[in-house]
Known about the structure:
This protein is α+β, with helices and mostly antiparallel strands.
Amino acid sequence: MTPTETNELNAAETPQSETPSTEAAAHDHTHDHDHDHDHAHHHHDHGPVLNPDLTREISVEAPVEVVDAAFDKVVRKFQKQARIPGFRPGKVPANVIKRKFAQDVRQEVMEQLVSERFRLALEEQNVNPVSQPQIVELTLFEGQPLKFKAAFEVLPEIDITGYDSVKVAKPSVELTEEEYQSELDRALDSQATIEPVTDDRTLTTGDLAEISFTGEIKPLAQTVGEEGLENVTPSEPITGEDVPVELGGKNTLPAFSDALQGKKPGDELVLEVEYPADFGEPRLAGKTVSYDVKVKAIKKKTLPEQNDDLAKQLGDYETWDEFTSKLREHAADRKKHALENEAKEKLVEELIAKFEFPVPESFVQQQIDARLDRGLRALAAQGMKAEDMRKLDFSRLRVAQREQAVGEVKASLILDKIAATENVEVSDEDVDRELLILSIQSREPLEQLKQRLTSDGGLNRIREQLRREKTGNVLYDKLAS
């Protein structure tokens, strides 16, 4: 899309939440595949905040003999590995190890013993944390009992009584003739021929004006959204060379069509364009831009003849009738998919509004991370440099993402609860199909992808997400009318 074009409204896909797994290991932080940009390390600096409504604290102890046995085990390990002048390998006395490696020994004992005792305490008390524990009041010394307290978040109790009373209007998905014609026009445009106009005349409706331009955007507040940087002053002007603009074209902004009407090659003009809030280029949406424009040439577009030869050029079609039939079918499918996704999204919004409950802060922060990662990757794709990303106000950006992240976490928790009530299950075939799609998209061999996702817990997250999507479909079929 160029700055001279409007964007046709496409129904949004239902957002794909990346809420962590609700298993005990849910605290594992995950990044999207192949995300290796420098900026990834600059916005995960939030503290380990817990939601007090969902925070539980347990006291954990271990007797002195267990502590001493753990110290002895680690010291013996160090004795085997230590290389200290004056002692033969494996013969370093224990007291020398304890003195020389005191900090390292205590750290290893702590990592092993605290983790083991915390896990045993959870099993005894039948508690399932969904965040990393925060350890406080830790006492760990050789010859003394182990004592510490651990605080962590648990899942909320969610009462979804009445979820099946929520209603959403089922949209009319029939393709109109106007929509079909728009699809056909795009196909014909892709095969059109463009020729220069040699007559000495001015631009008129239907002509293509070949222009060059420079634009300056008015500064606004800085925000990173799902599609990249929004509401931002670009570091460089908006420029374009030899850009074709169809006067009166349905994809041309009226401001450009009106300003170019009656102009000739060589003419220069200044115009101001107010972009709509839903404009397809995020950095221009809702902005006002002042352009300096120069008309370079007038050209004429000639559409191809609609026949069997054209059908064969457009794809694997034998006749023009076959092409138009498939075009109509595909356009109808896309419209149905888009409108039904909008309705499903509305249904989930109604469920979020209906049920009030606290959400784990650890889930919210991870969802904010996921949203910012997607936005920053979009910025990188748009050409923003890593050093410029580091200058962004990430504290402010995190705050800006919070409301949507909370809604996405709530949606996932509600859908998980409804899935259990409705007995929604995801088959291995469903997961395999999704893995195949991911393998094709990422160009990673299927078996390698499966191994990686199995080892890092990603396979469980994919299964959970598929279950949520399937639950959304079940609810739509049940509640839309």
